[in-house]
Amino acid sequence: MNKRAMALVVLAAASIGCVRVDSGGAGVLWTITGGTQKGVFSEGLHIVAPWNRMVVYDVRAQDRLEQMQMLTNNGLTVGLEVSVRFRPMISDVPKLHAEIGPAYYDKILKPILRSVTRDVIGQYTPEEVYRSCAWRSRTSSRWSSARSR
Length: 149
Hints:
Blueprint: H1 3-16, E1 18-21, E2 25-31, E3 35-36, E4 44-47, E5 53-58, E6 62-71, E7 77-86, H2 93-99, H3 104-121, H4 126-147
Antiparallel strand pairs: 1-4, 2-3, 2-5, 6-7
């Protein structure tokens, strides 16, 4: 085998075992012999054996907008848009991976958001909900601009 072919084989073999963790990411390594490892892999290129897996989590602040239909205290339905901001703690990413997995928003956060919203909205009449939401939407933009100063 000539040198060029050998270099291609080595390059191909090395690229199979490389995982890139982009900025704002945290990698969790799962090994065939030890399961989820406790360490967190930061940004950069990491060599991972082909029989192991690395899952990369986005640890930056994330926003999700959920549209919901909720019942008020008099049994009428109101439509809501609820926004939630979250981010996983870097040190807890291995535990998050082992206990819940990459779909943690759909498995844990979204049901909690819906449950809490249902509990809160169920205490008010539709008029109180819309009055409160109109007030909050006017003040939240002021609050955000005041915090950024």
